[in-house]
TrEMBL record, chain A:
Residues 3-172 form the Electron transfer flavoprotein alpha/beta-subunit N-terminal domain. Signal peptide: none annotated. The electron transfer flavoprotein serves as a specific electron acceptor for other dehydrogenases. It transfers the electrons to the main respiratory chain via ETF-ubiquinone oxidoreductase (ETF dehydrogenase). Pfam families: ETF (PF01012), ETF_alpha (PF00766). Heterodimer of an alpha and a beta subunit. Coiled coil: none annotated. Belongs to the ETF alpha-subunit/FixB family. It comes from the Bacteria. This is FAD-binding protein. The lineage of its organism: Bacteria, Bacillati, Actinomycetota, Coriobacteriia, Eggerthellales.
Automatic annotation (TrEMBL), chain B:
This is Electron transfer flavoprotein small subunit. InterPro entries: ETF_a/b_N, ETF_b. It comes from the Bacteria. Residues 21-213 form the Electron transfer flavoprotein alpha/beta-subunit N-terminal domain. It comes from Adlercreutzia faecimuris. Pfam families: ETF (PF01012).
Length: 294, 254
């Protein structure tokens, strides 16, 4: 069994290569620019010439694909790699299964209707293409050689022109990496009140995210802080929902928390049926008291 | 310029019922336009208004997508014409099959320069139809697009990726997948809805689209997720000592 890994970031290169190792005896990693050592049998690096977007590396990736002839292709779920892997799959008569949360015996588990359902599916083609959500292979240990090779860039038939590129300012928080996550919901009456949630986060060492209305109708949070359907799907040790009603669209994102808590002034809020410990109380009243006790 | 916007019509997730054996029943759900395709329609309509381009919406799906309210909904949003394949032979298509059906309709529409897709469909959110379609048409594609400017035989787009922002020029014809941020869907007025009923609609059957490839993905099961087992202990802050008990439980988990 041969596995090919497409990854842009080093953490994904490590995790997907480690996961590939559990599925295949030969692991090849393809990444941009800098090789990642000790995770695969063979690391292939692609450097895209100036003036091209990285998607123009499609033909180069395809050449490695044809060289390796993999049985399975594990892909980091980034926009660029969804394009590159998707177009290679199309050429092979296959289709990429995206954002798998689990992968066993070729069967990928992913969300349906943003979490209303869970879907299991497998490739009906000889080769499986799957993009894998972070954390899916968290327990697998990567191993490999330092063998790295740079392949020559293959010019695409229709090259694109990169006019400008800049790094986005680093996200202030990385909720996917946080062990403790607090979500603020509509129960927060004013932006100033979020200070209470921030104090609480500081006390318990948590990162602060939010439900959808707080990124859309209010501009209190960046879009990246939205937890739930078509936003972040998290896997924290501890989750605390404050002023969160418990709508499915949000809870899907935190359902995998080991222990979960909720604070809401309505003792009938649906969230209390979906957490381990609930506290019925007004944020303005109870949060200062809780913060004082922590 | 001729712009085609790809639209998925699917069951309204608000109407999906979880059955006793945890399966999903969408039989009572009314057809709706997939949420983020509304942003794609708006982006197409705005670009057309800006450039004088003609716009066609293209839909492929089971017979249930042929719904007069849905058709009017699409056509009331600044779109000139609709091409729709509604045939149960087109039910449950995977991304590859969907792209094949859409590619056949794009080719038959003739003279399409730019295809616009939404960020992802409400059901699978696989973000693969745009790339499969681009490959089927042999056109370049880009996703995550937040702004489009038409040039001479080109489009220049701004796009936002996970950690970067880019400006890229693509030669036409091309396929773009637009981020929901690109445009807020309009609320159609009564006049728009009435006018929508008079716009041209071309209906296709599956047979008009060439032979559909076999499924590339086999779906094994779709079920409602098992709810996580939770303790569901509720404390009332108005009762003496219960806030302290909640804090104690929280401290225990840290």
């Amino acid at each position: 069994m041969k596995a090919l890994v497409f990854a842009e970031s080093e953490p994904a290169a490590r995790e997907l290569s480690a996961g590939a190792r559990t599925l295949a005896d030969e692991v090849t990693l393809v990444t941009f620019d800098d090789p990642v050592a000790g995770v695969a049998d063979r690391v292939v690096t692609v450097t895209v010439p100036e003036g091209h977007p990285k998607e123009d590396a499609l033909e180069t990736f395809y050449q490695v694909y044809q060289d390796v002839q993999p049985d399975i292709v594990l892909v980091e779920p980034t926009r660029r790699l969804k394009t590159i892997a998707g177009r290679i799959a199309a050429r092979e008569g296959a289709s990429v299964i995206t954002d798998a949360m689990a992968l066993a015996d070729g069967v990928a588990t992913s969300m349906y209707f943003g979490g209303v359902g869970v879907r299991t599916a497998k490739a009906a083609t000889p080769v499986t293409f799957v993009t894998v959500a972070p954390g899916t292979f968290a327990d697998a240990e990567p191993s490999g050689t330092d063998a790295a090779e740079a392949v020559a860039f293959v010019e695409p038939a229709v090259p694109l022109t990169l006019v400008a590129r800049e790094d986005l300012p680093p996200a202030e928080v990385d909720l996917t990496a946080a062990e403790r996550v607090v979500a603020a919901g509509r129960g927060f009456a004013a932006e100033e009140q979020l200070g209470l949630a921030r104090d609480f986060c500081q006390k318990i060492g948590a990162e602060l995210g939010c439900t959808r209305p707080l990124t859309e109708s209010e501009t209190w949070f960046p879009r990246e802080a939205y937890i739930g359907v078509s936003g972040l799907i998290l896997n924290p040790e501890v989750y605390v929902g404050i002023g969160v009603s418990g709508q499915m669209q949000h809870m899907v994102g935190v359902d995998r928390a080991k222990v979960s808590f909720a604070i809401n002034k309505d003792k009938n809020a649906p969230i209390f049926q979906q957490v381990d410990y609930g506290l019925a109380g007004d944020i303005a009243d109870v949060l200062p008291k809780i913060n004082a006790e922590l | 310029m001729n712009i085609a916007v790809m639209v998925k019509v699917l069951p309204d997730d608000q109407d999906i019922v979880v059955t006793a054996d945890r399966k999903l029943d969408a039989s009572k759900a009314k057809p709706v336009v997939s949420t983020y395709d509304l942003n794609a329609i708006e982006a197409a309509a705005l670009l057309a208004a800006d450039t004088g381009a003609a716009t066609t919406a293209i839909v492929a799906g089971p017979a249930s997508v042929d719904d007069s309210k849905t058709k009017k909904n699409i056509l009331s949003r600044g779109i000139d014409a609709l091409a729709m394949a509604a045939d149960d032979a087109l039910a449950d298509m995977d991304a590859r099959q969907t792209a094949q059906a859409l590619a056949a309709m794009v080719n038959q529409a003739d003279g399409i320069d730019l295809v616009i897709c939404g960020d992802g469909s409400a059901d699978l959110y696989a973000q693969q139809v745009d790339v499969q379609l681009a490959e089927a048409l042999g056109w370049p594609s880009l996703n995550g697009v937040t702004a489009i400017t038409a040039g001479d035989g080109t489009v220049t787009v701004e796009r936002v990726l996970e950690n970067e922002r880019e400006t890229v020029t693509l030669p036409l014809p091309a396929v773009l997948s637009v981020s929901p941020d690109i445009a807020v869907p309009r609320i159609a007025g009564m006049k728009d809805i009435l006018a929508a009923g008079k716009k041209p609609v071309t209906m296709y059957a599956a047979g008009d689209l060439g032979e559909l490839a076999p499924a590339a993905v086999e779906v094994i099961d779709v079920s409602a997720p098992e709810p996580a087992a939770r303790k569901k202990e509720l404390f009332d802050a108005a009762q003496d000592g219960e806030l302290d008990a909640f804090v104690a439980a929280l401290k225990g988990a840290l």
